[in-house]
Amino acid sequence: MKLSLELTVATKPEWVVAVMANLPSFLRDHADCERKASALAMSLVAKYPDRLEIIPELIATGVEELEHFQQVYEVMRERGIPLAKEIGKDPYITALMKLLHSDSLRRFLDRLLLASIIECRGAERFRLVSEALDDDKGLQQFYHDLWVSEARHGHIFVGMALEYFEKDRVYSRLTELNEAEGRIVDGLELRAALH
């Protein structure tokens, strides 16, 4: 059973140029994204305490995302880059949240599937950053390792959805959301940020 997805729109090469031109801003945003990813996993535990089959995996994912935050913070500390004072609005995430259904059951499915898509987009972009960091082998390896981890998280969330919903329903909605995510990515302003 396929748990991964192919993104419908590839990140533009100009995005990598923007990131490489302002790596400190990218690292700050990346740290914020890891904090938010950890919080998302834990919010799913709090919101759906009756979904016992997925709680251990959600907790493990939340812990792993927090460890990623710690790792990014260490990179920033070594380079003298402070954390952002405030976590700014992420136009990508804001647009994705507008796709969520309002009724509780379909919203639960959407939250899992959007988490999968967000992780897959993160994996794609970490791969691009890793490939662009020829002159910094340590940071290159760091982003390579994160790419692998984020790709795995994308699979985890689809697997969680399949615990509770029919396969056809999961993949039909995943296709819809994935196509919408591609349109969102295509319309985003390029900036030194993960999204």
Quickly list its features.
Ferritin, 195 residues, single chain, 73% helix, tRNA 2-(methylsulfanyl)-N(6)-isopentenyladenosine(37) hydroxylase activity, mainly alpha, 7 helices
How would you describe the overall organization of this protein?
This protein is mostly helical. The protein is 73% helix and 0% strand. The protein has helices spanning 13-21, 23-47, 55-78, 91-97, 104-132, 137-164, 167-187. Helix 5 (104-132) runs antiparallel to helix 6 (137-164) and helix 5 (104-132) crosses helix 7.
Strand content: under 5%
Number of domains: 1
Radius of gyration: 16 Å
Through-space gap between termini: 29 Å
> What's the CATH H-level superfamily name?
Ferritin, core subunit, four-helix bundle
- Mean pLDDT reading: 93
Layout of SSEs?
Blueprint: H1 13-21, H2 23-47, H3 55-78, H4 91-97, H5 104-132, H6 137-164, H7 167-187
Helix pairs in contact: 2-3, 3-6, 5-6, 5-7
Organism: marine metagenome
GO biological process, one term: tRNA modification
GO molecular function: tRNA 2-(methylsulfanyl)-N(6)-isopentenyladenosine(37) hydroxylase activity
